[in-house]
User: What shape does this take?
Amino acid sequence: MASKQQPEQLFDFDITKYMGDFKVPGVDVETLVSSQRRNIEALTQANRLAYEGLQAVLKRQAEILRQTMDEVSQATKDIAEPGAPQDKAAKQTELAKDAFERSLSNMRELAEMIAKANNEAFDLLNKRFTQNMDEIREAFVKSAKK
Assistant: This one.
C-alpha cells in the first residue's frame, strides 16, 4: 500500500541531496537550486497577489449588486407614487441616466482593480526574471574565471 504524501512534504524535497553526487563541471548545483527556489517563491507570491485581487473584485461586485438592488427598490417605490405622467416620465429618464452613469463608474472601478492586481503580479514576476538573468550572467562570469 502506498503511503499518502502530505502537500507540504512535497516542497521539502531536497534536490541538492540527490544532485550532489552528480559532478558536472562548471555547474554549481546549489546556486541552480537556490535560483529555482526563488523562482517558485516569486510565482507563489504572484499567484497570491492575483488571488487577493480577484477576491477584492468579487467583494466589490457583491457590494455593487447589493447597492443596485437597494436603488432599484427605491426607484420602484418612487415611480409607484401618484403623480402626473410627464413627471413620472421625467423621473424615469433621470433614474435611467443615473443608473447608466453608475454602471460606467462601477465598470471603470472594477477594471482598475483588475489592472492593479495584474500589474502587481506582473511587476513581481518581471523583477524575478531580471534577477534570474543577472544570476545566470554571474554564473557564466564565475565559470569563465575558473
Observations:
- The chain is about 85% helix and 0% strand.
- Residues 1-8 have pLDDT under 50 and may be disordered.
- Helices lie at 7-10, 15-19, 29-80, 85-145.
